[in-house]
Amino acid sequence: MVLIDLDGTLIDSVPDLAFCVDAMMDELGRPRHGEAAVRNWVGNGVERLVRRALVGQLDGEPPEADYERAYPLFLELYRANTSNRSRLYPGVREGLDFLKGAGYPLGCVTNKAAQFTEPLLADLGIRRYFSLVVSGDSLPHKKPHPLPLRHAADYFGADPHQALMIGDSISDVTAARAAGFTIICVSYGYNHGRDIREAKPDGVIDSLAELEDWLVETSATADRR
Ligand SMILES: O=C(O)COP(=O)(O)O
Ligand SMILES: [Mg+2]
């Protein structure tokens, strides 16, 4: 079984997210942040993104009244701008075709809310690759909690020690470790401005098109043991 993260791994969704954060800030009469700042704030769900935009940094909490005003504005904007500016990363289609062709059960596990995950996957033409989609609000906990990964393993009847997670951020690595999965990360995603190699995933690839070689090499190494 292979589970794949969405934002920063399959899809560069920041152009839409940043557009909506900036439009929300305009509506609130506050200064825009721009795409580079938003790139570092994605990965823990849209609620956290809105809170980060209001405080202007990764950590910290805005006044609750500000959040209550901003969050519905963001939801309305993002509903109308879920996929307009978002793009598949190079190599994604090749990687998915390889995994599907090789017969791996495929799941998408994201912290993005389901109301956005489903249209985004469909609009970019990759929904059909996944037999299971677990969104940030599908279960009581999201990544870095291992629950979404364990849920997917149960769904597919997969042994976690034979399971692979592919992601871009520390949340993916932490969730995969806690669930007993192997974790490969992409080098190009959003990891809050940090190099994902610091989190020590089992492998780092520059494109999902490298998956075939990575899987062949690791199974050859395992066979030699
Ligand atoms: O922060 C989000 O909304 C989603 O992030 P993820 O797809 O990388 O889990
Ligand atoms: Mg991600």
Automatic annotation (TrEMBL):
Keyword line: Carbohydrate metabolism, Hydrolase, Magnesium, Metal-binding
GO molecular function list: phosphoglycolate phosphatase activity
InterPro entries according to UniProt: HAD-like_hydrolase_sf, HAD-like_sf, HAD-SF_hydro_IA, HAD_2, HAD_sf, PGP-like_dom2, PGPase_prok
One family name in Pfam for this protein: HAD_2
Binding site for Mg(2+): 5, 7, 168
Cofactor list: Mg(2+)
Pathway field: Organic acid metabolism; glycolate biosynthesis; glycolate from 2-phosphoglycolate: step 1/1
EC number: 3.1.3.18
Reaction catalysis annotation: 2-phosphoglycolate + H2O = glycolate + phosphate
Active site: 5 (nucleophile)
Domain of life the protein comes from: Bacteria
Signal peptide location: none
Matching Gene3D superfamilies: HAD superfamily/HAD-like, Putative phosphatase, domain 2
Chain's role: Specifically catalyzes the dephosphorylation of 2-phosphoglycolate. Is involved in the dissimilation of the intracellular 2-phosphoglycolate formed during the DNA repair of 3'-phosphoglycolate ends, a major class of DNA lesions induced by oxidative stress.
Entry's family note: Belongs to the HAD-like hydrolase superfamily. CbbY/CbbZ/Gph/YieH family.
Protein known as: Phosphoglycolate phosphatase
Gene source species: Thioalkalicoccus limnaeus
Lineage: Bacteria, Pseudomonadati, Pseudomonadota, Gammaproteobacteria, Chromatiales
